[in-house]
Amino acid sequence: MAQQTADDTEQEHHGPSRGAYLQIAGILAVMTTVEVLLYVFRESLGRAVTTPSLIILTLGKFVLVGAWFMHLRFDHPALRRMFVGGLALAAVIFAVVAADWFLGSNGLDPQGF
Amino acid sequence: MSTVDAADHAAADHGHTTNLGMSNEKLGMWTFIGSECLFFGAMIATYLLYLNRTNDGLTAFDVFDIPFTSASTFILLMSSLGMVLALDALQRRDMRAFQTWTLATALMGMVFLAGQMYEFAFFVEEGFKLETSPFSVSFFMLTGFHGVHVTVGVVMLVALWALSLRGGITADKHLETVELVGLYWHFVDIVWIVIFTVIYLIPVG
To answer: In this complex, do A86 and B36 lie within 8 Å of one another by their Cβ atoms?
Structure first.
């Protein structure tokens, strides 16, 4: 009976283990620390280094939380497509704003970005 | 099908499943999250559009306190770990651990909200108000709406914790409910990951 209960619990336990969750959290903490360090040393590193590095780290954190904590890595692929679909639509908005900005049609200064 | 079988069946799938093999509730939550990506994407784009429209008032460089916001960002990030550990505990039917991690997650959310309220009060004191400039209104709208989302998440977490204390949460019947609350919480965290970089680190850095 005890064996059966343990088996049932194991069957219901889908997704990563606690150890994996802790590892992911550790990686996220390190990435956040690196982001803050990039900010602290922004003047010596220069904008050409800090901005792309920050974007890459942010995307990495985004993917880690989505894939592991939100279980997208283990769930039905349709859920991943729904999430990516929303992100793609948001990206379209960014593209339109960026195009409007760099074409200068809104009168804002693109150098300030 | 006997009455007992029917009751077991209803308890197992929470009523209805989609033809994808998952519940309507889970599909609905992911549809909501997909639409929220669009919502926050539009708000972040608006913020970037008005970043330099300061009306000769305070700029991002003048008002943001990066060390303070970094600390609250770290707390929100770790609350996501608390949420997955709460779900893991429920899957293992360890109700004590579930209650502990659910409460810890809610408390971390509350600390983040307290930090945001302090930050807003400090900004207003410094003269950086909602009506100061297009930049200030887009900042307060974006971070304010995120704060509202965190508040809703905290309310859901406290409700789960309070229900579990009364025996109202069981692994058999409420695993998916907790998973859906967790999805919402992780989404709130993921949005802040982007906001923290785009608003606080890149324009100032």
So the answer is: yes
Q: Is A85 on the interface with B (CB under 8 A)?
A: yes
A48 touches chain B (CB under 8 A): no
Quote the minimal CA–CA distance from B30 to chain A in Å: 6
Over chain A (113 residues), the average pLDDT of each successive run of 10 is 43 73 96 95 92 96 96 92 93 86 63 45
Q: B26 — phi, psi (to 5°)?
A: -70, -40
Please say whether the beta carbons of B49 and A98 come within 8 A: no
Q: Which residues of B169-197 are buried (b: 16+ CB within 10 A; e: fewer)?
A: bebeebbebbbbbbbbbbbbbbbbbbbbb
For residue B173, the model assigns a pLDDT of: 92
Q: How far apart are the first and last CA of chain B?
A: 65
| Residue where the block lists tokens 């792309």 | A52
Instruction: Identify which of A13, A57, A94 has the shortest CB distance to residue B41.
Output: A94
Cα–Cα distance for residue pair B140/B134, rounded to 1 Å: 10
Which residues face B23 on adjacent strands? B17
Q: Could you tell me if B145 and B172 are in contact, meaning their C-beta atoms sit under 8 angstroms apart? A: no
Pick the residue from chain B with its C-alpha nearest to A49: B205
Structure tokens at A11: 């069957």
Using the beta-carbon criterion (under 8 Å), do B41 and A38 form an inter-chain contact? Answer: no
Amino acid at A11: Q
pTM exceeding the 0.80 threshold for the entire prediction: yes
pLDDT in tens, B19-47: 777 888 999 999 999 999 999 999 999 99
Tally DSSP H helices, then E strands, for chain B: 7, 0
The ipTM (two decimal places) reads: 0.86
